[in-house]
Amino acid sequence: MQNKLISIGDAAKLLGISIDTLRRWDSAGRVHSIRSGPLGHRYFLQADIQQFLQDVDSIARHWVEASQAAEPSPEMYCQTRDVFQARLEQFQSQLSRIAPSSKASLVTAAAGEIGNNSFDHNLGNWPDITGILFSYDMKNKKVVLADRGLGILATLKRVRPGLTNADEALKVAFTETISGRYPETRGNGLKFVRSIIVDNPLTLYFQTGDSYLYLKEHDTDINVQHAKTSIRGCFVTIGFKSLL
User: Where is the signal peptide (predicted)?
Assistant: First the structure.
């Protein structure tokens, strides 16, 4: 069973993406195919596809990258804020078993701020899938959050119409204090997240649109970079390996 080959159509169906998207992923090296037959048709090891689906990063990323997507699996999907808060409390409880409670509270606060921002700033304006994907991997010490919302640029353009791209918007969100009137609080919330990351042994990867930043402890500068693939909404990972 581990060595069973499946067609590109079956592999794409398991991943919840189109065949064209899977071809692009194969060409980019994100997944690996086996060519067979005189026409060189692509086949995939079923075990490789299943392993890909077990990685929370990969699941979240291909969900936000997809041009069309379905609701995530129930154990990751938080359609409402109440569901998110309940699962966030479960995460904090589990993390507190392996890390000091004060540090577990900080990681939870950062994840909570990011998740609540998604609900606050997409209220009534979700483009397709309502709610967020929220999951964590205690073995690899990371938290993953993603949404298919409007993204930071569209959010901040309501009050900063001069913003022209996701690079500018991301930098503003993490560096500038903006008044507390809706919808401007996204900037203040992410500035709070930044303070948690740089003051503690944590890492943060945050992508919105076609721009991303990476932060770690003691980082004083915000270095926004251009991503190879644009996404819907936001994709975030918080790493806490060095916390333990």
Answer: none
